[in-house]
Amino acid sequence: MLSGFQNASRIPELRRRVLFTLAMLAVYRLGVHVPTPGIDRHAMAAFFEQQKGTLFGFLNLFSGGALEQFSVFSLGIMPYISASIILQLLTVVFPYLERLSKEGEVGRRKITQYTRYGTVVLSIVQGMMISMGLEGTHGPGGYSLVLNPGWSFRLMTVITLTSGTAFIMWLGEQITERGIGNGISLIIFAGIVARLPSAVSTTMQFIREGELGPLVALVILALSVVVVGAIIFVEQGQRRIPVQYAKRVVGRKMYGGQSSHLPLKLNTANVIPPIFASSILIFPATLAQFANHPWLQTAASMLTPGQWLHDVVYVALIIFFAFFYTAVVFNPVDVAENMKKFGGYIPGIRPGQKTAEFIERVLSRVTLSGAIYLSIVCLLPTILVRQLNVPFYFGGTALLIVVGVALDTVAQMETHLITRNYEGFMKRGRLRGRRG
Does residue 80 contact residue 114 with C-beta atoms inside 8 Å? Predict the structure, then answer.
């Protein structure tokens, strides 16, 4: 591993890409601390201390703490992610988008352009909703979060937050084109990792004050290492379906005849199911703060993390979204048709409809295994809080994102090393990212 990093510094192009990526991430972290005009930052920080299990706390995690400080990057990259997911879902519904997705580079550019437009629209809507919500919200001491409420504050907030999100989107695209790894994923990764030092400091403070025993802290550390290793193992797991290509004669040359395989990722949906499930579950708790209805307060208390109903609904939603998103991004019928077009077949399976049914059956079993794995990782924080009385929240979704993005980035760096005849990071085998 160390020799791989040493080799990476010897390649000028790879060194420039790594330095460019680090510089863009540094710009993003600087922007997190640039405040939006018209907000009492001290009252805002006190307000977010009470938002650990609500939608605000969830968005604050993905914005890297920018929403807590209400900086120009408060919306983070979530509008872009939401727009991307919406377009992926609409691809199944609208034939025009489906045709664009199959037109190669030209179609992808068009979809990317639509994603940018959708990001701006969502940013405007979210910025207006946040500005109007903040005007009617007060901190723990009864102080108003907004210094001068009114349309001037709302318009300034919408313009500032929308510009911040557009700038983050531009940073992510620049990292993808001129840096290493997926720029959007790396921005989320940087936001989550930036909060790690404060979490470690808080843990050490709990140990010194006696709220967390040294033995429990060691158990948590060992469990974290085991969980990270398990995530790495599963994220690289594949179910390989053997594929045989028949020999074809084109002119005077014979093509084909080789054996290959169709890799099916164990976790095709990545972190989309936990994100969707968490967003739905914390929505009642967020509404309960603005609407004082008895039934809403009851639903929010029953869906609090640690309650049995929360765990059951959380697992059910993760399994549902794992199957739903996998069905959106992977079409067995198209795979079977393309395989038949190029003379490929699965040994013992008739090409065409039978092949599609076989792939769908295998994919369903693999997706169920991946959904159970996601449920275990995401329920681990609740178990730690309930059984070991851990005084902080160990985010399973955040851990999945951090490990997955790290695997993708290292895999891309390894590709650069191998193409230039350098030894990669792993001496045995090949490190595969989530995209496989």
Answer: no
Domain total of the chain: 2
Closest CA to 137 of 71, 224, 7, 44: 44
> Looking at the structure, do residues 175 and 138 belong to the same domain, yes or no?
yes
pTM of the model: 0.75
Say if CB 8 and CB 14 are below 8 A apart: yes
- H/E stretch holding 17 reads helix 12-32
pLDDT single digits (tens) 256-309: 567 788 888 888 888 888 877 877 777 666 666 555 667 766 766 776 666 778
What gap in Å lies between CA 21 and CA 193, rounded to an integer?
Answer: 15
Token pair for residue 277? Answer: 């499930």
Pair (89, 153) in one structural domain: yes
Six-digit token string for 311: 């765990």
- Same domain for 434 and 378, yes or no, is no
SS3 percent helix, strand, coil of the chain, rounded to 5, is: 70, 5, 25
Q: Is residue 221 part of a domain?
A: no
Residue-number span of the structural domain to which 151 is assigned: 1-194+405-436
Q: Which token pair is 312? A: 């059951």
DSSP conformation class of 402: H
